[in-house]
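User: Can you write out an input/output pair for a complex, sequences first and structure second?

Assistant: Here is one pair. Inputs:
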Amino acid sequence: MFSQILLFKISDILDYNQQMLITLLITGIACAILGCFLVLRKLSMITDALAHSILLGIVLAFLITKDLNSPILFIGAGLFGIFTVFSIELLSSTRLVKSDDAVGIIFPLFFSLAVILISTFARNVHLDIDIVLMGQVIMIPLNNIEILGIIIPKAMFYMLLMLVANTLLISIFFKELKISTFDPEFATIAGFSSSLLFYALMTLSSFTAVSAFDAVGAILVIALFIGPAASAYLLTKDLKMMLLVSILFSVANTFIGFFLAMKINVSISGMIAAITGATLLLTVLFNKDGIITAIYLRHKNKKEFRHDLLIMHLGNHQTEPDAELELGFDTIKDHLHWDQDAIERRTTRLIDQGLVFRDQTRKIYRLTEKGQLRYNMIKIDYGM
Amino acid sequence: MDLSILTSYTFLVVCFGTMILASVAGMIGAVTVLKGQSLIGDAIGHSSYPGVIIAFMIGMALDPVLLLIGATLSGTLAFVLVQFIDVNSKLNLDAILATVLSAFFGLGMVLKSYIQGHPIYVKVPQGGLQNYIFGQAAFIRLVDVQLIFVVAIPSIFLLILFYKEFKLFVFDEIYAKSIGLSPSMMYIIMVLMIMGVIATGLKFVGAILISSFLIVPAITAMQWSNRFNRVLLIAAGVGSFSSFIGTYLSSVYAGMSTGPSIILAMSCIAFLSMIIGPHGLIASKIRRREFLADN
């Protein structure tokens, strides 16, 4: 009776869609902050391996516990993820294969075993491979557990737990993580174990992937880990900023993906993954060093150079005796080799800026006083 | 042991198909693995999925040829995108691969869920689409095997035709470039061959696991030889032998999908080779012992 009164339901304050959205947002942020370190350490494809192989962990744990909601399932699968990373590391340390190849051989094996086990032993159970790959965002609010008198969707609870754990690891060991990420040799000299931090990072990645798995599926886990971090990496030069920007990206991707998917009634996790890819592509195109930015800057520089050229031409000739010929309204185009349109456009622009004026008595373009100053500046700039 | 299955028509068709596919994949995979591009296949494999769905939406049927074209196009688009981002940003290749593969597969999921709920497509049977994720031997038709031939034979032909060029390209790209071989041309041929294997193999092995057809036999072969021609041949042999075992297992035991069974067989051979091969764990242990005894 007493516990009945204390019972607090998340569903009292959040409606169905809000519960889904907030769970997705928490998942995205928990993944993105770890993802930053994974991207910087060139471990992105490890998440691919993790996402596929923890399925085997889940199946094995399930075959032992026979209960899909058991916490042992969560722990077993998480430990199996660490085992996967360990196997990959072990395999590449034998130098028989390269580390990329080790990823490529370990996860298909584990995934194949999982698929076979599911279809032979766990057929009648609610352990659909489709759901594992694609998740069931729509089911999040239906699957509740009671924690300390609060009834909360299971996925939301686990993701909150992982968000707290990830945030704690990153904030407590920020300096160590930073040094071992950017300068592993120095980290070893400085006296802390890089491999311990590596496995700490991998442990959290594995458990985060396992918890996210249930709600959003294996494929979105990869997108959530790597996409926002990769976009943030292109935009920032500072680790703290990168963490912050990756969170912003993750939130934006989730919002856009969620509402778009709801609107046209399609797979939510698929849509978020696709949007994540799209925002990365946009970031690649439009960032400071991006290709579109480069084209724009080239165009802008060209324009500026032509304006400078016009000012130089005016400055060089306006005191000379041939000024009427060189700078005349109708003749200037022959000396600059521009067409009349371009002349009109560029002089108008400079007249608007107050650098040039039309000398109606001599029928030539001339520099104003401000233009004269600019002319001297340009001469210094170009070293003349 | 049920040996009567070995003579059944369905088994022979599927087995023949997967064996050809795996031996071609093994050879082409050896080129990509030696080139250090092993995970490209993984990304292309996942990325071919939306193409399959779009081809289904356009054709309104599970037409193998149309689906093959769809898979090829979206896989190629993904590859081009990966290369584009790689050239135009400072991102690492593996971060690009991870994002592109999940984005494409996510798009596939979106399209799949769209046609599931859409009244126009409800009437068209979609059961077969599921097989493009994991592969299912039971759904293999003769036309699928014929498609393997149509795609695999030109791929092998390309490999034989450009054998010398590939050898140079794999081991010494700079020298290859200096004698007038264009690396981008070689990359295009390589990707064409990878695409061929992936697109035809989807129905047998599925989008997620097809990449191991490229990687695992190649790695196995590299445990046994350092010579390019031998690696190619061993990879082909390992691929087709594993396919035979895997297809047999999947035909005998219900629930064992073809793809995962073949990969299980491949991986066992690979790990065995790493242990007993001439560069393997046992050999190096013996060598170390001999070295210590001599000193």
